[in-house]
């Protein structure tokens, strides 16, 4: 879902990047190695507050520029909101300094919220230095940039980037910021004037009783606009409420799965121990039989061996039935859950 959404968001940037990445034969020595006219390396050196670390891997390539070549795809980036620069400190006074397309980072599961072993939560993982950067503050800067942009198309692209980065995060700050982005996006798509998108909503619940009468009455010049803003404002709070609700469901699901796993683990290993005990009894019986006992003792021993063998077959069959929980308790026959795991399942 993130990949599809971000593809549409970033589609408009590809033409801009291509135009900026044309080689320039007149670039001076020491300029951008990738030939990018808008590369930050062409700016005054005084603007650089931190020195970048020495890099003898990607930066040794003749057409790779640390300041504008994506560390993931090696193509030039636009000097805009389409990339992330890793400013993680790698040694005293030095930062990583490598950049990456945000699109590439999201597609490579190196940005945003990613589960599994990498475990990102609204973060960026730099492939070059293996350091992480919190993206909440990065998106906050994008939102601030939006407030000074006049183009509705550019605002939509920037908001889309921020939404893709924050969606799915469990951080409270990320959720709050995501609500602001989604509210702004809703206003934008509903036709709200650009200068009105960033205006704070009025919380009427905090107004004293009677404020809508007499000299304290609020002047409403456009009832339809007021209604639209009220609906949009509710959507932001509804998004937060739904996020909290889904989080609680997922946490409950995780707890139930952990509980089911513990039950299955306990019962399966108990069955294994029982089987090993029977196998031990069978071996002892066979060992005694090989010693040459009296006919009466031999007959009794044979009966015991046969009985133990039958029990082993029954317990092996029971274990095979119990192993069906591998599909999950929900897909395991109710009879097996009741008989072997002492679980009552309602119809």
UniProtKB/TrEMBL annotation:
<keyword id="KW-0539">Nucleus</keyword>
<keyword id="KW-0862">Zinc</keyword>
<protein>
    <submittedName>
        <fullName>Uncharacterized protein</fullName>
    </submittedName>
</protein>
<dbReference type="Pfam" id="PF07227">
    <property type="entry name" value="PHD_Oberon"/>
</dbReference>
<feature type="domain" description="DUF7615">
    <location>
        <begin position="237"/>
        <end position="340"/>
    </location>
</feature>
<dbReference type="Pfam" id="PF24590">
    <property type="entry name" value="DUF7615"/>
</dbReference>
<dbReference type="GO" id="GO:0008270">
    <property type="term" value="F:zinc ion binding"/>
</dbReference>
<feature type="domain" description="Oberon-like PHD finger">
    <location>
        <begin position="35"/>
        <end position="164"/>
    </location>
</feature>
<keyword id="KW-0479">Metal-binding</keyword>
<dbReference type="InterPro" id="IPR032881">
    <property type="entry name" value="Oberon-like_PHD"/>
</dbReference>
<keyword id="KW-0863">Zinc-finger</keyword>
<dbReference type="InterPro" id="IPR056034">
    <property type="entry name" value="DUF7615"/>
</dbReference>
<dbReference type="GO" id="GO:0005634">
    <property type="term" value="C:nucleus"/>
</dbReference>
């Amino acid at each position: 879902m993130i990949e599809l959404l971000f593809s549409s968001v970033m589609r408009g940037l590809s033409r801009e990047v291509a135009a900026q990445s044309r080689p320039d034969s007149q670039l001076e020595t020491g300029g951008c190695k990738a030939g990018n006219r808008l590369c930050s390396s062409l700016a005054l050196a005084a603007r650089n507050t931190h020195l970048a670390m020495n890099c003898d891997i990607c930066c040794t390539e003749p057409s790779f520029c640390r300041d504008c070549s994506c560390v993931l795809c090696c193509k030039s980036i636009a000097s805009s909101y389409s990339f992330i620069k890793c400013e993680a400190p790698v040694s005293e006074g030095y930062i990583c300094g490598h950049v990456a397309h945000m699109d590439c980072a999201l597609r490579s599961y190196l940005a945003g919220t990613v589960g599994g072993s990498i475990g990102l939560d609204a973060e960026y993982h730099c492939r070059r230095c293996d350091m992480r950067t919190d993206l909440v503050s990065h998106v906050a800067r994008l939102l601030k940039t939006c407030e000074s942009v006049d183009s509705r198309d550019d605002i939509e692209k920037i908001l889309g980037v921020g939404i893709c980065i924050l969606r799915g995060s469990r951080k409270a700050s990320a959720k709050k910021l995501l609500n602001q982005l989604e509210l702004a996006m809703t206003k934008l798509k509903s036709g709200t004037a650009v200068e009105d998108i960033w205006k704070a909503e009025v919380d009427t619940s905090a107004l004293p009783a009677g404020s809508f009468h007499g000299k304290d009455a609020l002047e409403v010049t456009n009832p339809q606009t007021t209604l639209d803003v009220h609906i949009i404002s509710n959507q932001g709070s509804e998004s937060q409420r739904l996020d909290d609700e889904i989080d609680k469901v997922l946490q409950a699901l995780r707890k139930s799965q952990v509980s089911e796993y513990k039950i299955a683990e306990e019962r399966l290993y108990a069955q294994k121990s029982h089987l090993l005990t029977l196998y031990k009894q069978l071996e002892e019986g066979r060992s005694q039989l090989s010693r040459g006992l009296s006919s009466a003792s031999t007959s009794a021993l044979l009966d015991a061996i046969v009985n133990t063998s039958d029990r082993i077959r029954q317990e092996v069959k029971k274990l095979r039935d119990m192993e069906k929980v591998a599909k999950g308790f929900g897909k395991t026959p109710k009879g097996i859950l009741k008989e072997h795991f002492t679980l009552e399942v309602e119809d």
